[in-house]
Amino acid sequence: MKRVWLKAACLVLCLGSVASWAQAAREKVIIDTDIGDDVDDAFALALAVKSPEFEILGVSTTFRDTELRARLADRFLAEVGRPEIPVMAGKPTPPTPMSQGRYAEGGHFAKNSHGDAASFLLDQIREHPGEITLIAIGPLMNIGAAIDRDAATFKKLKRVVIMGGSIRKGYGDYGYNEHVPPMPEWNILNDVSSAQKLFSSGVPLFVMPLDSTQLKLDEVKRAFLFTRGTAVTDQLAILYHLWAQETPTLFDPMAVAFALKPELCPVTPLHIRVDEKGFTREEPGAPNAQACLQSNPEDFFQFYLKRVGEKQ
Fold this sequence. Notes:
This protein is α/β, with parallel strands linked by helices and 312 residues long. It is 43% helix and 15% strand. The chain is globular and about 50 Å long.
């Protein structure tokens, strides 16, 4: 009887140790987003919340009406069963109408106010030095603000993964058509100064530029997702229809996918200079970033659709 009891106790302790290890092994992430305009931010957030590999410490919003974006994120997270994830708002810039803004006013989940994004980021870094991956999928205002306030603390991030830049290909270059030269990309262009600060910060930086992120969610893939009937896919369907365009390009989800499965977007060490016009220019010099210059859309969608469309 004593031997049986000891075996049972050992089993309980072992299972507890495995659970503790699994919890500790999860990647701590903060997602900085301009959710509410192009719908790919919502598809990126969907992948994050469907990924048990992540411990999402928080979501922060950037660019234009950051409070409205934060309320939108509040509702999305609550609708998909993750209301415990805190949402912060960055400093607003002059607002313009948002395609998905009405979503933020629906439901009963939006909070009246949100903490400051840059302060939250720095506080979390101080609490978890060397452990946090910051995934930035919008203009880089919050990053620039954090660097200005405390560059030494910002440098204690484990890494930053961004969707941004245009290294060798521009918008509309899908690899099978005529070459389109590099051009200023949206997230970089809308805060050049903050981008320059990030690229010179010394933080390990992984860049998912236009070269590897022009991933079209075609009709067949949309039909698969939107008929899954899960909390996550239902919210994506609502936001897609509010977006009121036809075929989304999933730029931002590649940044999240890379943080989960880096083999989906192999990177090359480069020295990248952000010029005053927002170009991300590849130049000689010591690498300051790892950039994904080519991805395999089939591999990406095999992973994305299975993960986000999974019924749990």
